[in-house]
Design a protein that fits this description.
CATH architecture of the largest domain: Sandwich
Shape: globular
Order of helices and strands: HHHHHEEEEEEEEE
Distance between the termini: 18 Å
Number of strands: 9
CATH superfamily of the largest domain: Jelly Rolls
CATH topology of the largest domain: Jelly Rolls
Structural class: alpha+beta
CATH class of the largest domain: Mainly Beta
Number of domains: 2
Length: about 180
């Protein structure tokens, strides 16, 4: 999806849900002015912000970006068919399609080095992952601690824990993330 398609789809989803901009602002904690700029396409939300908006509208990133194909269910998935979403610092590739028989969600995430701390995230599912490339990262779980990570290290975050993963290195950080149950 291109930026304008995303913006138009967010607005359509909000209108279909019967939610006003003011209500969406109150639910998400995001200013109504910023939400208007997102819907008009003049601002690009981060992945975490888009996820927060979609959750308030009763959906999630995977459902929003993954389109069901009419193909029969098969056990192999071509990289050409994989959906992705990105912001200025992060790309998420959905490695498995949205299907009722899938018991977990699998992502390939690529995170560029940040000048500042990343946004906090909270999921309704457990999240596990492994760093497959990059030099230095830090996982922080609110009120629990901070831990350094490097290539080959793995992590596990329980559902509802507020967390963030920061690329502390100078090169791109790449990880495989599993979410159970899937968010779709």
């Amino acid at each position: 999806m291109e930026k304008l398609e995303i913006c138009q789809s967010v607005k359509s989803l909000r209108v279909e849900a019967g939610v006003t901009l003011r209500e969406l602002s109150r639910i998400t904690g995001i200013s109504a002015a910023y939400l208007v700029s997102v819907e008009k396409g003049s601002s690009s939300p981060t992945i975490a912000t888009l996820s927060k908006i979609l959750k308030a509208l009763g959906t999630d990133l995977a459902t929003f970006f993954t389109k069901m194909s009419g193909e029969p269910e098969k056990p192999v998935f071509s990289s050409a068919q994989m959906q992705s979403v990105q912001d200025a610092h992060r790309t998420c590739i959905f490695l498995l399609p949205k299907r009722s028989d899938m018991r977990f969600e699998l992502l390939n995430e690529k995170i560029l080095p940040f000048e500042s701390e990343t946004e906090w995230e909270v999921h309704d599912c457990d999240v596990g992952g492994v760093i497959i490339s990059g030099t230095s990262a830090e996982l922080e779980i609110e009120n629990f601690g901070k831990w350094p990570l490097k290539k080959g290290d793995s992590f596990y975050i329980k559902a509802k824990q507020k967390h963030r993963l920061v690329n502390k290195g100078r090169s791109k950080l790449e990880l495989i993330t599993v979410m159970d149950p899937p968010r779709y």
